[in-house]
From TrEMBL:
Species of the source: Nannocystis bainbridge
Domain (GH18) ranges: 117-482
Classification via SMART domains: Glyco_18
Descriptive protein name: chitinase
PROSITE patterns: GH18_1, GH18_2, PROKAR_LIPOPROTEIN
EC class of the enzyme, as a word: hydrolase
Length: 482
């Protein structure tokens, strides 16, 4: 794709504290509760995302939530296009954009599919910059829902634009430059006109922008204001629902406040839907690590949301002592670190279902990226080895988009497969480079798991990470779509 022309400085640009894996996962875009590793500056991998159960921040841009991982993908990068200057701070006050003349008329029917038919993909605001990935690049026929990451939450508890240039100001071919709504939001409207089945949700928060959830959710008045603001934002900009990415409630009390906030949002969405003749959606991005999960009121959450997107990735990252799998389907018995025993898709799914969440309310998150480790000279071909730090990455150290892995690492490194964890890894013994990732084989195993457990579908962080021919998404679509 051609490089972007020089752009004006965005009015709002995320300051990234990116962590290790997807929007809500175990260590990418969220902070893991284990180590609190420093946040990164690129929002590549939900996330809101991207995103450990009590995740600590790591070095990537995806949203994650594992107890031992750092979040990836839930924050946006601070780097803009070459030769441009980016804003070093975000605007946190109420969004003052006048949406009076914006036509956001859409036909909203709520969730068009139930059960395993859901495929939810995160699109990040910052994808339109260095990644040069735009809404028009989304393979919408292979998705049912697009979550736009992210809207910010102001200290006053109001949903505001995260990056006004990317969101509503960037002019695309065919746009009226004087129209009040342009950018990716307008592109999403056009995409929905072309694909009548598609639904869009605005994701609020993410790892970097979750700070203001706790104080505003602590009171009934604060919850009511936040709910009203986010529903107004959704309606003003023509979305079909709200996806809350609070990373993460730090105590059971905050977990109770979270479920009360979602109840307020459900009430506000239902009232708006009654006025608009629409069934508006409410979802969340949830951690997969046991520490963060323990703080959630899962029955209370399930009573309000349409479904839960489980950030089942970032189980590995530079905050850990040894290498392991980024998104193991099952916990491998040969992992020598006892702290990793519950860091797997199946462990998280089992715990959530045991808490009373219906299987079709749980959507399994998968990563379209891998994690790399340098100096991994021991273990089993680099697996379970000590390491010297994050390895190379696509946009930041340690985080490698799947398309980059296919083009630049699979041809050169030796591939291994862990039969119990049901995921691959790559290893270069000469350079002591270890990469944990998902590929079509492991993705197929995860879709088989979704079907066997009668789960509500698949979510992934994030759209720009796949190959141009949608190698990973095709596996999800072939297995899960009707």
């Amino acid at each position: 794709m051609p490089s972007l022309p020089p752009r004006p400085v965005p009015a709002l640009l995320l300051t990234a504290a990116l962590v290790a894996a997807c929007p809500g996962g175990q260590g990418d875009s969220t902070m893991s509760e284990g180590t609190g590793s420093p946040a990164t500056t690129d929002g590549s991998t939900a996330t809101d995302p991207v995103i450990t159960a009590g995740t600590t921040s790591g070095t990537s841009g995806t949203a994650t939530d594992s107890d031992s991982g750092d979040p990836t993908g839930t924050t946006a990068p601070t780097t803009g296009d070459p030769g441009t200057t980016t804003v070093a701070s975000t605007t946190t006050g109420p969004d003052t954009t006048d949406t009076t003349d914006i036509d956001t008329t859409t036909t909203t029917t709520g969730d068009p599919v139930r059960g395993a038919g859901r495929i939810v993909g995160y699109f990040t605001a910052w994808a339109v910059y260095d990644r040069d990935y735009h809404v028009s690049d989304i393979p919408a026929a292979k998705l049912t829902h697009v979550n736009y990451a992210f809207a910010n939450l102001s200290p006053a508890g109001e949903c505001v634009l995260g990056d006004s240039y990317a969101d509503i100001e960037k002019v695309y071919d065919g746009d009226d430059p004087n129209a009040p709504l342009k950018g990716s939001f307008h592109q999403l409207h056009q995409l929905k006109q072309q694909h009548g089945h598609l639904r869009t949700l605005i994701s609020v928060g993410g790892y970097t922008w979750s700070t203001n959830f706790a104080p505003n959710a602590a009171t009934e008045q604060g919850r009511a204001k936040l709910a009203a603001s986010c529903v107004k934002f959704m309606r003003d900009y023509g979305f079909d629902g709200v996806d809350i990415d609070w990373e993460f409630p730090a105590s059971p009390l905050e977990g109770q406040h979270y479920s009360a906030l979602l109840a307020a949002l459900r009430t506000e969405l239902d009232a708006a839907g009654a006025e608009d003749g629409a069934d508006y959606l409410l979802t969340i991005a949830a951690p997969a690590g046991p520490g963060n999960l323990a703080n959630l009121d899962l029955p209370g959450i399930a009573a309000s949301v349409d479904w839960i997107n489980l950030m089942a990735y970032d189980f590995a990252g530079p905050w850990m002592g040894t290498t392991t799998h980024n998104a193991a389907l099952y916990s491998p018995a040969d992992d020598p670190d006892p702290n990793n025993a519950l860091l797997s898709d199946d462990s998280a799914v089992t715990a959530i279902l045991a808490a009373g969440v219906a299987p079709d309310q749980l959507v399994l998150g998968v990563p379209f990226y891998g994690r790399s480790f340098a100096g991994a000279s021991g273990g089993q071909d680099g697996l379970y080895s000590t390491f010297s730090g994050a390895g190379p990455g696509t946009w930041e150290p340690g985080i490698v988009d799947y398309h980059d892995i296919v083009a630049n690492y699979e041809p050169e490194l030796e591939r291994f497969w862990h039969a119990e964890a049901a995921v691959p890894w790559l290893y270069d013994a000469a350079d002591d480079l270890f990469i944990t990732y998902d590929d079509p084989e492991s993705m197929q195993r995860k879709t088989d798991y979704i079907t066997a457990k009668a789960l509500g579908g698949a979510m992934f962080w994030e759209l720009a990470g796949d190959t141009q021919d949608s190698a990973l998404l095709d596996v999800l679509a072939d297995a899960l779509l009707p």
